[in-house]
Amino acid sequence: MAHRHRPVDFPPLLLAFVFSLLVLLLSGRCVDGRAISPPSDGDAMELPASDGISGYAAAGYKHSPLLVLPRGSAAEACEPSYGFLPCTTTVAGNLFLVLVYGFLMYKAATCLSAGSEMLLEILGPGIVGGLFLPILGALPDALLILVSGLSGSKEVAQNQVLIGMGLLAGSTVMLITLLWGSCVVVGKCDLLENSTSVDSQDTNGFSLFASGITTDSQTSHAAKIMVISIIPFIIVQLPRVFKFLSGRVAVLIALIVAIALLVSYCLYQVLQPWIHRRKLEFAEHMLMILGILGHPQTAALGRLMDDDGRPNKPVIEKLFHKIDQNKNQLISPSELRAFIIGLKIHEVNLDNDVVVDKIMKEFDTSHDGNIQEEEFIKGISKWITKVNHRSSASHSNDIVDYYMEAREQRNMLIDQIDEAAEENIKNPASTCVTSILLLILGTSIAAVFADPLVDAVDNFSIATKIPSFFISFIAMPLATNSSEAVSAIIFASRKTQRTASLTFSEIYGGVTMNNTLCLAVFLALVYVRHLTWDFSAEVLVILIVCVVMGIFTSLRTTFPLWTCFVAFLLYPLALVLVYVLDFVFGWS
Protein backbone atom coordinates (compact mmCIF):
# COMPACT_ATOMS: atom_id res chain seq x y z
CA MET A 1 0.00 0.00 0.00
CA ALA A 2 1.31 3.40 -0.88
CA HIS A 3 1.21 6.08 1.75
CA ARG A 4 1.20 9.81 1.63
CA HIS A 5 2.91 12.31 3.84
CA ARG A 6 0.93 15.01 5.56
CA PRO A 7 3.13 17.89 6.73
CA VAL A 8 2.86 18.47 10.44
CA ASP A 9 4.37 21.10 12.71
CA PHE A 10 5.64 19.60 15.91
CA PRO A 11 5.43 22.72 18.18
CA PRO A 12 1.69 23.38 17.56
CA LEU A 13 0.90 19.75 18.40
CA LEU A 14 2.88 20.02 21.63
CA LEU A 15 1.18 23.30 22.53
CA ALA A 16 -2.25 21.75 21.88
CA PHE A 17 -1.39 18.87 24.18
CA VAL A 18 -0.10 21.17 26.98
CA PHE A 19 -3.16 23.42 26.67
CA SER A 20 -5.55 20.45 26.90
CA LEU A 21 -3.72 19.11 29.92
CA LEU A 22 -3.94 22.52 31.64
CA VAL A 23 -7.68 22.63 30.95
CA LEU A 24 -8.05 19.22 32.53
CA LEU A 25 -6.02 20.15 35.62
CA LEU A 26 -7.86 23.44 36.07
CA SER A 27 -11.21 21.72 35.67
CA GLY A 28 -10.24 19.48 38.55
CA ARG A 29 -10.59 22.46 40.90
CA CYS A 30 -14.37 22.28 40.60
CA VAL A 31 -14.57 18.61 41.47
CA ASP A 32 -14.22 19.14 45.21
CA GLY A 33 -16.23 22.38 45.26
CA ARG A 34 -19.57 22.86 46.97
CA ALA A 35 -22.84 23.68 45.23
CA ILE A 36 -23.31 27.31 44.26
CA SER A 37 -26.97 27.53 45.26
CA PRO A 38 -29.22 25.07 47.13
CA PRO A 39 -32.43 23.80 45.61
CA SER A 40 -35.45 25.91 46.41
CA ASP A 41 -37.84 23.81 48.51
CA GLY A 42 -39.23 26.48 50.85
CA ASP A 43 -36.52 26.21 53.44
CA ALA A 44 -35.07 29.64 54.15
CA MET A 45 -32.39 28.38 56.50
CA GLU A 46 -29.04 30.02 55.93
CA LEU A 47 -26.05 27.82 55.31
CA PRO A 48 -23.38 27.77 57.96
CA ALA A 49 -19.80 28.52 57.11
CA SER A 50 -18.45 25.84 54.83
CA ASP A 51 -15.04 24.41 54.17
CA GLY A 52 -15.99 23.98 50.53
CA ILE A 53 -16.44 20.23 50.79
CA SER A 54 -18.67 19.09 53.63
CA GLY A 55 -20.57 22.18 54.66
CA TYR A 56 -23.29 21.91 52.06
CA ALA A 57 -23.91 18.23 52.78
CA ALA A 58 -23.88 18.88 56.53
CA ALA A 59 -26.69 21.38 56.06
CA GLY A 60 -28.91 18.59 54.82
CA TYR A 61 -29.21 19.57 51.18
CA LYS A 62 -28.92 17.27 48.19
CA HIS A 63 -26.62 18.05 45.31
CA SER A 64 -27.78 19.56 42.06
CA PRO A 65 -27.74 16.99 39.26
CA LEU A 66 -25.95 19.41 36.90
CA LEU A 67 -23.08 20.00 39.31
CA VAL A 68 -20.26 17.70 40.28
CA LEU A 69 -20.55 15.78 43.51
CA PRO A 70 -18.32 16.53 46.48
CA ARG A 71 -15.63 13.94 46.81
CA GLY A 72 -16.87 13.22 50.29
CA SER A 73 -20.17 11.80 49.00
CA ALA A 74 -20.12 8.14 49.84
CA ALA A 75 -23.03 7.16 47.62
CA GLU A 76 -21.81 8.48 44.30
CA ALA A 77 -18.15 9.32 44.72
CA CYS A 78 -15.86 8.93 41.73
CA GLU A 79 -12.22 7.95 41.72
CA PRO A 80 -9.84 10.33 39.92
CA SER A 81 -7.65 8.69 37.27
CA TYR A 82 -4.03 8.50 38.42
CA GLY A 83 -5.11 10.26 41.60
CA PHE A 84 -5.11 13.78 40.14
CA LEU A 85 -7.14 13.92 36.90
CA PRO A 86 -10.65 15.30 37.43
CA CYS A 87 -13.69 13.05 37.69
CA THR A 88 -17.41 13.64 38.05
CA THR A 89 -20.71 11.78 38.17
CA THR A 90 -22.82 14.35 36.32
CA VAL A 91 -23.92 14.47 32.71
CA ALA A 92 -22.36 17.85 31.93
CA GLY A 93 -19.11 17.05 33.69
CA ASN A 94 -18.61 13.70 31.98
CA LEU A 95 -19.57 15.14 28.61
CA PHE A 96 -16.84 17.74 29.07
CA LEU A 97 -14.30 15.06 30.03
CA VAL A 98 -15.26 12.88 27.06
CA LEU A 99 -14.71 15.83 24.71
CA VAL A 100 -11.34 16.77 26.21
CA TYR A 101 -10.02 13.20 26.41
CA GLY A 102 -11.36 12.55 22.90
CA PHE A 103 -9.50 15.60 21.61
CA LEU A 104 -6.29 14.31 23.21
CA MET A 105 -6.76 10.90 21.56
CA TYR A 106 -7.30 12.72 18.26
CA LYS A 107 -3.97 14.50 18.76
CA ALA A 108 -2.34 11.18 19.62
CA ALA A 109 -3.62 9.67 16.37
CA THR A 110 -2.40 12.73 14.45
CA CYS A 111 1.10 12.46 15.95
CA LEU A 112 1.34 8.72 15.27
CA SER A 113 0.13 9.11 11.68
CA ALA A 114 2.44 12.02 10.87
CA GLY A 115 5.46 10.51 12.61
CA SER A 116 5.13 7.09 10.99
CA GLU A 117 4.72 8.52 7.49
CA MET A 118 7.73 10.81 7.94
CA LEU A 119 9.73 7.77 9.02
CA LEU A 120 8.42 5.93 5.97
CA GLU A 121 9.84 8.61 3.67
CA ILE A 122 13.30 8.17 5.18
CA LEU A 123 13.49 4.39 5.53
CA GLY A 124 11.19 3.48 2.65
CA PRO A 125 8.51 0.78 2.61
CA GLY A 126 9.38 -2.78 3.61
CA ILE A 127 9.53 -3.17 7.39
CA VAL A 128 8.43 0.39 8.19
CA GLY A 129 5.61 0.63 5.66
CA GLY A 130 4.51 -2.97 6.07
CA LEU A 131 4.79 -3.52 9.80
CA PHE A 132 5.13 -0.32 11.83
CA LEU A 133 2.80 1.93 9.85
CA PRO A 134 -0.34 -0.30 10.00
CA ILE A 135 0.23 -1.12 13.68
CA LEU A 136 0.83 2.51 14.68
CA GLY A 137 -2.28 3.55 12.77
CA ALA A 138 -4.41 1.14 14.82
CA LEU A 139 -2.59 1.82 18.12
CA PRO A 140 -5.08 4.35 19.63
CA ASP A 141 -8.01 2.00 19.04
CA ALA A 142 -6.04 -0.98 20.34
CA LEU A 143 -5.03 0.87 23.54
CA LEU A 144 -8.61 1.99 24.21
CA ILE A 145 -9.85 -1.57 23.75
CA LEU A 146 -7.09 -2.87 26.01
CA VAL A 147 -7.76 -0.53 28.93
CA SER A 148 -11.54 -1.06 28.64
CA GLY A 149 -11.18 -4.54 30.12
CA LEU A 150 -7.80 -4.48 31.82
CA SER A 151 -8.44 -2.59 35.04
CA GLY A 152 -10.83 -3.21 37.92
CA SER A 153 -12.62 -6.34 39.02
CA LYS A 154 -14.04 -8.93 36.67
CA GLU A 155 -17.49 -7.38 37.03
CA VAL A 156 -16.19 -3.90 36.20
CA ALA A 157 -14.21 -5.26 33.24
CA GLN A 158 -17.28 -7.10 31.93
CA ASN A 159 -19.18 -3.82 31.96
CA GLN A 160 -16.46 -1.59 30.55
CA VAL A 161 -15.32 -4.00 27.85
CA LEU A 162 -18.56 -3.18 26.04
CA ILE A 163 -16.98 0.22 25.40
CA GLY A 164 -14.10 -1.53 23.65
CA MET A 165 -16.51 -3.52 21.50
CA GLY A 166 -18.41 -0.33 20.67
CA LEU A 167 -15.19 1.33 19.55
CA LEU A 168 -14.18 -1.69 17.47
CA ALA A 169 -17.56 -1.92 15.75
CA GLY A 170 -17.98 1.84 15.40
CA SER A 171 -14.52 2.37 13.93
CA THR A 172 -14.94 -0.42 11.39
CA VAL A 173 -18.45 0.60 10.36
CA MET A 174 -17.56 4.30 10.15
CA LEU A 175 -14.56 3.65 7.89
CA ILE A 176 -16.36 1.40 5.44
CA THR A 177 -19.65 3.37 5.32
CA LEU A 178 -19.47 7.08 6.16
CA LEU A 179 -15.86 7.65 5.15
CA TRP A 180 -16.11 5.42 2.08
CA GLY A 181 -19.24 7.17 0.86
CA SER A 182 -17.80 10.63 1.57
CA CYS A 183 -14.70 9.84 -0.49
CA VAL A 184 -16.91 8.79 -3.42
CA VAL A 185 -18.76 12.12 -3.23
CA VAL A 186 -15.67 14.37 -3.03
CA GLY A 187 -13.60 12.29 -5.46
CA LYS A 188 -16.22 11.83 -8.19
CA CYS A 189 -15.33 12.51 -11.82
CA ASP A 190 -17.18 12.11 -15.11
CA LEU A 191 -17.69 8.50 -16.16
CA LEU A 192 -17.15 7.45 -19.77
CA GLU A 193 -19.37 4.97 -21.59
CA ASN A 194 -16.99 2.17 -20.60
CA SER A 195 -17.53 3.10 -16.92
CA THR A 196 -14.07 4.59 -16.45
CA SER A 197 -13.63 7.93 -14.70
CA VAL A 198 -11.87 10.86 -16.38
CA ASP A 199 -9.19 12.40 -14.17
CA SER A 200 -9.87 15.97 -12.96
CA GLN A 201 -13.08 16.28 -15.03
CA ASP A 202 -16.29 16.79 -13.06
CA THR A 203 -18.90 18.34 -15.36
CA ASN A 204 -21.82 15.97 -14.71
CA GLY A 205 -22.53 17.38 -11.27
CA PHE A 206 -24.28 14.97 -8.93
CA SER A 207 -25.49 12.59 -11.60
CA LEU A 208 -26.03 9.22 -9.93
CA PHE A 209 -24.85 7.23 -12.96
CA ALA A 210 -22.68 9.60 -15.01
CA SER A 211 -20.25 10.52 -12.26
CA GLY A 212 -18.22 8.42 -9.86
CA ILE A 213 -14.73 7.10 -9.13
CA THR A 214 -12.49 4.39 -10.61
CA THR A 215 -9.79 2.48 -8.72
CA ASP A 216 -7.09 0.07 -9.88
CA SER A 217 -7.08 -3.71 -9.52
CA GLN A 218 -4.74 -3.55 -6.50
CA THR A 219 -7.47 -1.72 -4.58
CA SER A 220 -9.88 -4.57 -5.31
CA HIS A 221 -7.28 -6.97 -3.90
CA ALA A 222 -7.16 -4.88 -0.71
CA ALA A 223 -10.95 -5.21 -0.45
CA LYS A 224 -10.67 -8.99 -0.80
CA ILE A 225 -8.09 -9.07 2.00
CA MET A 226 -10.55 -7.09 4.13
CA VAL A 227 -13.23 -9.73 3.53
CA ILE A 228 -10.82 -12.51 4.52
CA SER A 229 -10.04 -10.67 7.77
CA ILE A 230 -13.58 -11.25 9.10
CA ILE A 231 -12.90 -14.99 9.61
CA PRO A 232 -12.22 -14.57 13.38
CA PHE A 233 -15.63 -12.90 13.78
CA ILE A 234 -17.27 -15.91 12.13
CA ILE A 235 -15.40 -18.34 14.40
CA VAL A 236 -16.38 -16.56 17.59
CA GLN A 237 -20.04 -16.65 16.52
CA LEU A 238 -20.10 -20.44 16.01
CA PRO A 239 -21.19 -21.35 19.57
CA ARG A 240 -24.35 -19.31 19.10
CA VAL A 241 -25.22 -21.28 15.96
CA PHE A 242 -23.78 -24.69 16.84
CA LYS A 243 -23.74 -26.13 20.35
CA PHE A 244 -20.75 -28.43 19.89
CA LEU A 245 -18.23 -25.65 20.63
CA SER A 246 -17.92 -23.81 23.93
CA GLY A 247 -17.66 -20.04 23.93
CA ARG A 248 -14.25 -19.99 25.62
CA VAL A 249 -12.77 -22.43 23.11
CA ALA A 250 -14.22 -20.40 20.23
CA VAL A 251 -12.65 -17.23 21.65
CA LEU A 252 -9.24 -18.94 21.86
CA ILE A 253 -9.46 -20.28 18.29
CA ALA A 254 -10.59 -16.89 16.98
CA LEU A 255 -7.69 -15.23 18.84
CA ILE A 256 -5.14 -17.57 17.23
CA VAL A 257 -6.65 -17.02 13.77
CA ALA A 258 -6.73 -13.22 14.27
CA ILE A 259 -3.04 -13.20 15.22
CA ALA A 260 -2.18 -15.42 12.25
CA LEU A 261 -4.07 -13.11 9.88
CA LEU A 262 -2.37 -10.06 11.40
CA VAL A 263 1.09 -11.59 10.89
CA SER A 264 0.17 -12.61 7.34
CA TYR A 265 -1.13 -9.15 6.49
CA CYS A 266 1.96 -7.42 7.86
CA LEU A 267 4.19 -9.89 6.02
CA TYR A 268 2.30 -9.17 2.81
CA GLN A 269 2.81 -5.44 3.32
CA VAL A 270 6.51 -5.95 4.04
CA LEU A 271 6.95 -7.99 0.87
CA GLN A 272 4.80 -5.72 -1.29
CA PRO A 273 7.74 -3.77 -2.83
CA TRP A 274 9.34 -7.08 -3.81
CA ILE A 275 6.00 -8.30 -5.18
CA HIS A 276 5.70 -5.13 -7.28
CA ARG A 277 9.17 -5.66 -8.72
CA ARG A 278 8.36 -9.27 -9.57
CA LYS A 279 5.12 -8.18 -11.23
CA LEU A 280 7.03 -5.59 -13.24
CA GLU A 281 9.54 -8.21 -14.39
CA PHE A 282 6.72 -10.48 -15.47
CA ALA A 283 4.88 -7.65 -17.25
CA GLU A 284 8.04 -6.75 -19.18
CA HIS A 285 8.57 -10.41 -20.04
CA MET A 286 5.03 -10.65 -21.44
CA LEU A 287 5.57 -7.42 -23.41
CA MET A 288 8.68 -8.95 -24.94
CA ILE A 289 6.76 -12.07 -25.94
CA LEU A 290 3.79 -10.16 -27.30
CA GLY A 291 6.03 -7.67 -29.09
CA ILE A 292 7.65 -10.51 -31.04
CA LEU A 293 4.60 -12.71 -31.63
CA GLY A 294 2.27 -9.86 -32.54
CA HIS A 295 4.65 -7.81 -34.68
CA PRO A 296 3.62 -7.28 -38.35
CA GLN A 297 6.90 -8.82 -39.55
CA THR A 298 6.04 -11.98 -37.65
CA ALA A 299 2.39 -11.94 -38.68
CA ALA A 300 3.41 -11.63 -42.37
CA LEU A 301 4.84 -15.16 -42.23
CA GLY A 302 1.44 -16.62 -41.33
CA ARG A 303 -0.57 -17.44 -38.22
CA LEU A 304 1.55 -18.79 -35.37
CA MET A 305 -1.51 -20.65 -34.05
CA ASP A 306 -3.88 -22.93 -35.88
CA ASP A 307 -7.67 -22.85 -35.56
CA ASP A 308 -7.52 -24.95 -32.39
CA GLY A 309 -5.15 -22.50 -30.70
CA ARG A 310 -2.14 -24.82 -30.95
CA PRO A 311 1.29 -23.71 -32.20
CA ASN A 312 1.57 -23.74 -36.02
CA LYS A 313 4.91 -25.49 -36.51
CA PRO A 314 5.47 -24.62 -40.23
CA VAL A 315 5.06 -20.89 -39.55
CA ILE A 316 7.39 -21.11 -36.52
CA GLU A 317 9.98 -22.76 -38.77
CA LYS A 318 9.64 -19.88 -41.25
CA LEU A 319 10.27 -17.42 -38.44
CA PHE A 320 13.39 -19.36 -37.41
CA HIS A 321 14.83 -19.25 -40.94
CA LYS A 322 14.03 -15.51 -41.20
CA ILE A 323 16.12 -14.80 -38.09
CA ASP A 324 18.91 -17.24 -39.16
CA GLN A 325 20.54 -14.89 -41.64
CA ASN A 326 23.69 -16.96 -42.39
CA LYS A 327 21.57 -20.13 -42.84
CA ASN A 328 23.71 -22.31 -40.55
CA GLN A 329 20.59 -23.71 -38.79
CA LEU A 330 21.51 -21.78 -35.65
CA ILE A 331 20.42 -18.42 -34.26
CA SER A 332 23.33 -16.55 -32.72
CA PRO A 333 22.95 -13.69 -30.21
CA SER A 334 24.00 -11.18 -32.88
CA GLU A 335 21.34 -12.47 -35.33
CA LEU A 336 18.70 -12.36 -32.59
CA ARG A 337 19.74 -8.83 -31.66
CA ALA A 338 19.45 -7.68 -35.30
CA PHE A 339 15.93 -9.13 -35.45
CA ILE A 340 14.90 -7.46 -32.15
CA ILE A 341 16.23 -4.08 -33.33
CA GLY A 342 14.16 -4.43 -36.49
CA LEU A 343 11.02 -5.03 -34.39
CA LYS A 344 11.63 -1.74 -32.53
CA ILE A 345 10.71 -3.16 -29.13
CA HIS A 346 12.48 -0.12 -27.65
CA GLU A 347 9.23 1.75 -28.27
CA VAL A 348 8.02 0.32 -24.97
CA ASN A 349 11.34 1.14 -23.26
CA LEU A 350 12.64 -2.41 -23.21
CA ASP A 351 16.41 -2.63 -23.52
CA ASN A 352 17.39 -4.65 -26.61
CA ASP A 353 20.37 -6.30 -24.93
CA VAL A 354 18.23 -7.33 -21.96
CA VAL A 355 15.64 -8.82 -24.33
CA VAL A 356 18.31 -10.80 -26.19
CA ASP A 357 19.79 -12.12 -22.94
CA LYS A 358 16.38 -13.22 -21.67
CA ILE A 359 15.49 -15.03 -24.90
CA MET A 360 18.87 -16.76 -25.08
CA LYS A 361 18.58 -17.87 -21.47
CA GLU A 362 15.06 -19.19 -22.02
CA PHE A 363 15.51 -20.84 -25.43
CA ASP A 364 19.13 -22.11 -25.33
CA THR A 365 18.50 -25.24 -23.26
CA SER A 366 21.72 -26.88 -24.54
CA HIS A 367 23.79 -23.92 -23.27
CA ASP A 368 26.00 -23.84 -26.38
CA GLY A 369 25.52 -20.10 -26.93
CA ASN A 370 23.17 -20.55 -29.94
CA ILE A 371 19.50 -21.44 -30.45
CA GLN A 372 18.88 -24.58 -32.45
CA GLU A 373 15.76 -24.98 -34.58
CA GLU A 374 14.17 -27.53 -32.24
CA GLU A 375 14.90 -25.29 -29.24
CA PHE A 376 13.36 -22.34 -31.08
CA ILE A 377 10.19 -24.28 -31.91
CA LYS A 378 9.81 -25.44 -28.31
CA GLY A 379 10.43 -21.93 -26.96
CA ILE A 380 7.95 -20.22 -29.29
CA SER A 381 5.37 -22.96 -28.62
CA LYS A 382 5.78 -22.35 -24.91
CA TRP A 383 5.24 -18.63 -25.46
CA ILE A 384 2.09 -19.24 -27.48
CA THR A 385 0.65 -21.50 -24.78
CA LYS A 386 1.40 -18.87 -22.14
CA VAL A 387 -0.19 -16.10 -24.19
CA ASN A 388 -3.31 -18.22 -24.83
CA HIS A 389 -3.68 -18.89 -21.13
CA ARG A 390 -3.14 -15.28 -20.07
CA SER A 391 -5.30 -13.74 -22.80
CA SER A 392 -8.22 -16.04 -21.98
CA ALA A 393 -7.87 -15.12 -18.30
CA SER A 394 -7.97 -11.41 -19.19
CA HIS A 395 -10.85 -11.90 -21.66
CA SER A 396 -8.73 -10.58 -24.55
CA ASN A 397 -9.26 -12.54 -27.76
CA ASP A 398 -6.84 -10.52 -29.84
CA ILE A 399 -3.09 -10.54 -29.21
CA VAL A 400 -2.85 -6.82 -29.98
CA ASP A 401 -5.51 -6.02 -27.35
CA TYR A 402 -3.66 -8.13 -24.83
CA TYR A 403 -0.42 -6.35 -25.76
CA MET A 404 -1.99 -2.95 -25.00
CA GLU A 405 -3.40 -4.28 -21.74
CA ALA A 406 0.00 -5.64 -20.68
CA ARG A 407 1.73 -2.35 -21.54
CA GLU A 408 -0.81 -0.41 -19.45
CA GLN A 409 -0.24 -2.75 -16.51
CA ARG A 410 3.53 -2.34 -16.83
CA ASN A 411 3.28 1.45 -16.87
CA MET A 412 1.06 1.37 -13.78
CA LEU A 413 3.60 -0.75 -11.90
CA ILE A 414 6.41 1.60 -12.91
CA ASP A 415 4.39 4.57 -11.60
CA GLN A 416 3.87 2.81 -8.27
CA ILE A 417 7.55 2.01 -7.86
CA ASP A 418 8.64 5.49 -8.98
CA GLU A 419 6.22 7.11 -6.53
CA ALA A 420 7.71 5.15 -3.64
CA ALA A 421 11.22 6.20 -4.68
CA GLU A 422 10.65 9.82 -5.63
CA GLU A 423 10.63 11.23 -2.09
CA ASN A 424 13.34 13.84 -1.66
CA ILE A 425 14.16 14.54 1.98
CA LYS A 426 16.18 17.72 2.33
CA ASN A 427 17.22 17.15 5.94
CA PRO A 428 16.86 13.44 6.78
CA ALA A 429 18.49 13.72 10.23
CA SER A 430 16.11 16.45 11.38
CA THR A 431 13.13 14.66 9.82
CA CYS A 432 14.08 11.43 11.57
CA VAL A 433 14.33 13.14 14.97
CA THR A 434 10.99 14.89 14.44
CA SER A 435 9.29 11.65 13.42
CA ILE A 436 10.62 9.81 16.49
CA LEU A 437 9.48 12.63 18.78
CA LEU A 438 6.03 12.57 17.19
CA LEU A 439 5.81 8.80 17.64
CA ILE A 440 6.87 9.05 21.30
CA LEU A 441 4.45 11.91 21.97
CA GLY A 442 1.54 10.17 20.21
CA THR A 443 2.14 6.87 21.98
CA SER A 444 2.46 8.60 25.36
CA ILE A 445 -0.75 10.58 24.94
CA ALA A 446 -2.67 7.50 23.81
CA ALA A 447 -1.31 5.36 26.66
CA VAL A 448 -1.95 7.97 29.37
CA PHE A 449 -5.43 9.14 28.38
CA ALA A 450 -6.98 5.93 27.06
CA ASP A 451 -8.06 4.77 30.53
CA PRO A 452 -9.53 8.16 31.60
CA LEU A 453 -11.50 8.33 28.35
CA VAL A 454 -12.98 4.87 28.95
CA ASP A 455 -13.91 5.86 32.51
CA ALA A 456 -15.50 9.10 31.31
CA VAL A 457 -17.56 7.26 28.68
CA ASP A 458 -18.66 4.70 31.28
CA ASN A 459 -19.65 7.43 33.77
CA PHE A 460 -21.45 9.37 31.05
CA SER A 461 -23.36 6.21 30.15
CA ILE A 462 -24.41 5.74 33.77
CA ALA A 463 -25.44 9.38 34.17
CA THR A 464 -27.50 9.48 30.96
CA LYS A 465 -28.81 5.87 31.07
CA ILE A 466 -27.56 5.47 27.48
CA PRO A 467 -25.86 2.09 26.82
CA SER A 468 -22.10 2.61 26.70
CA PHE A 469 -21.91 0.65 23.44
CA PHE A 470 -23.80 3.31 21.49
CA ILE A 471 -21.74 6.16 22.98
CA SER A 472 -18.47 4.46 22.10
CA PHE A 473 -19.85 3.35 18.70
CA ILE A 474 -20.67 6.90 17.64
CA ALA A 475 -18.31 9.20 19.56
CA MET A 476 -15.00 7.41 20.12
CA PRO A 477 -14.22 6.61 16.43
CA LEU A 478 -14.49 10.33 15.75
CA ALA A 479 -11.56 10.85 18.13
CA THR A 480 -9.34 8.01 16.96
CA ASN A 481 -10.08 8.10 13.22
CA SER A 482 -10.92 11.74 12.46
CA SER A 483 -7.34 12.59 11.47
CA GLU A 484 -7.22 9.80 8.89
CA ALA A 485 -10.76 10.60 7.76
CA VAL A 486 -10.00 14.26 7.04
CA SER A 487 -6.77 13.31 5.26
CA ALA A 488 -8.56 10.69 3.14
CA ILE A 489 -11.28 13.13 2.08
CA ILE A 490 -8.73 15.82 1.17
CA PHE A 491 -6.68 13.30 -0.81
CA ALA A 492 -9.74 11.95 -2.62
CA SER A 493 -10.74 15.50 -3.61
CA ARG A 494 -7.78 15.56 -6.06
CA LYS A 495 -10.10 13.61 -8.39
CA THR A 496 -7.71 11.17 -10.08
CA GLN A 497 -7.81 7.40 -10.38
CA ARG A 498 -4.45 7.18 -8.63
CA THR A 499 -5.48 9.18 -5.55
CA ALA A 500 -8.83 7.35 -5.41
CA SER A 501 -7.01 4.01 -5.43
CA LEU A 502 -4.68 5.10 -2.63
CA THR A 503 -7.53 6.50 -0.54
CA PHE A 504 -9.73 3.42 -0.73
CA SER A 505 -6.77 1.08 -0.25
CA GLU A 506 -6.01 2.82 3.04
CA ILE A 507 -9.66 2.56 4.10
CA TYR A 508 -9.67 -1.19 3.44
CA GLY A 509 -6.31 -1.49 5.20
CA GLY A 510 -7.68 0.31 8.26
CA VAL A 511 -10.64 -2.06 8.45
CA THR A 512 -8.30 -5.04 8.06
CA MET A 513 -6.22 -3.86 11.02
CA ASN A 514 -9.38 -3.43 13.09
CA ASN A 515 -10.46 -6.96 12.22
CA THR A 516 -7.07 -8.43 13.12
CA LEU A 517 -5.02 -6.37 15.60
CA CYS A 518 -7.86 -4.68 17.51
CA LEU A 519 -9.98 -7.83 17.55
CA ALA A 520 -6.99 -9.88 18.76
CA VAL A 521 -6.54 -7.45 21.69
CA PHE A 522 -10.26 -7.70 22.51
CA LEU A 523 -10.32 -11.51 22.32
CA ALA A 524 -7.19 -11.73 24.47
CA LEU A 525 -8.91 -9.63 27.14
CA VAL A 526 -12.02 -11.82 27.09
CA TYR A 527 -9.97 -15.02 27.30
CA VAL A 528 -7.38 -13.96 29.90
CA ARG A 529 -9.89 -12.29 32.24
CA HIS A 530 -12.46 -15.09 31.82
CA LEU A 531 -15.11 -12.62 30.63
CA THR A 532 -18.43 -13.75 29.21
CA TRP A 533 -18.76 -13.50 25.45
CA ASP A 534 -21.96 -11.50 25.12
CA PHE A 535 -21.39 -9.53 21.94
CA SER A 536 -23.18 -11.56 19.27
CA ALA A 537 -25.30 -8.64 18.06
CA GLU A 538 -22.28 -6.35 17.73
CA VAL A 539 -20.24 -8.98 15.88
CA LEU A 540 -23.13 -9.70 13.53
CA VAL A 541 -23.27 -6.02 12.59
CA ILE A 542 -19.55 -5.99 11.76
CA LEU A 543 -19.95 -9.15 9.70
CA ILE A 544 -22.88 -7.80 7.69
CA VAL A 545 -21.24 -4.44 6.91
CA CYS A 546 -17.85 -5.95 6.03
CA VAL A 547 -19.32 -8.72 3.87
CA VAL A 548 -21.69 -6.43 1.97
CA MET A 549 -19.13 -3.69 1.33
CA GLY A 550 -16.23 -6.13 0.91
CA ILE A 551 -17.87 -8.22 -1.78
CA PHE A 552 -19.32 -5.12 -3.43
CA THR A 553 -15.94 -3.36 -3.66
CA SER A 554 -13.86 -6.42 -4.57
CA LEU A 555 -15.95 -7.32 -7.64
CA ARG A 556 -15.74 -3.96 -9.39
CA THR A 557 -13.36 -1.04 -9.85
CA THR A 558 -15.80 1.72 -10.85
CA PHE A 559 -18.29 3.14 -8.37
CA PRO A 560 -20.97 5.54 -9.65
CA LEU A 561 -22.24 8.20 -7.28
CA TRP A 562 -25.30 6.13 -6.30
CA THR A 563 -23.05 3.63 -4.53
CA CYS A 564 -22.29 6.18 -1.78
CA PHE A 565 -25.92 6.00 -0.63
CA VAL A 566 -25.58 2.25 -0.14
CA ALA A 567 -22.65 2.90 2.17
CA PHE A 568 -24.36 5.77 4.01
CA LEU A 569 -27.51 3.70 4.70
CA LEU A 570 -25.51 0.88 6.23
CA TYR A 571 -24.40 3.09 9.16
CA PRO A 572 -27.83 3.81 10.72
CA LEU A 573 -28.90 0.28 9.78
CA ALA A 574 -26.05 -1.07 11.91
CA LEU A 575 -27.16 0.97 14.94
CA VAL A 576 -30.79 -0.07 14.54
CA LEU A 577 -29.83 -3.72 14.14
CA VAL A 578 -27.78 -3.75 17.36
CA TYR A 579 -30.62 -2.08 19.26
CA VAL A 580 -33.23 -4.52 17.96
CA LEU A 581 -31.11 -7.62 18.62
CA ASP A 582 -30.05 -6.53 22.12
CA PHE A 583 -33.13 -4.78 23.46
CA VAL A 584 -35.98 -6.39 21.48
CA PHE A 585 -34.77 -9.96 21.00
CA GLY A 586 -32.62 -9.96 24.14
CA TRP A 587 -29.38 -11.24 22.60
CA SER A 588 -27.40 -9.56 25.41
Automatic annotation (TrEMBL):
It comes from the Eukaryota. This is (wild Malaysian banana) hypothetical protein. Keywords: Antiport, Calcium, Calcium transport, Cell membrane, Ion transport, Membrane, Metal-binding, Repeat, Signal, Sodium, Sodium transport, Stress response, Transmembrane, Transmembrane helix, Transport. Residues 1-33 form the signal peptide. The chain crosses the membrane at residues 83-106, 118-140, 160-186, 225-242, 248-268, 432-450, 470-492, 504-527, 533-552, 559-581. One of its GO terms (molecular function) is calcium:proton antiporter activity. Belongs to the Ca(2+):cation antiporter (CaCA) (TC 2.A.19) family. It holds the Pfam family Na_Ca_ex. InterPro entries: CaH_exchang (IPR004713), EF-hand-dom_pair (IPR011992), EF_Hand_1_Ca_BS (IPR018247), EF_hand_dom (IPR002048), NaCa_Exmemb (IPR004837). It is a multi-pass membrane protein. One of its GO terms (cellular component) is plasma membrane. One of its GO terms (biological process) is intracellular calcium ion homeostasis. It is found in: Cell membrane. CDD domains: EFh (cd00051). The keyword Ion transport applies. Its main location: membrane. Residues 311-346, 351-386 form the EF-hand domain. The keyword Transport applies.
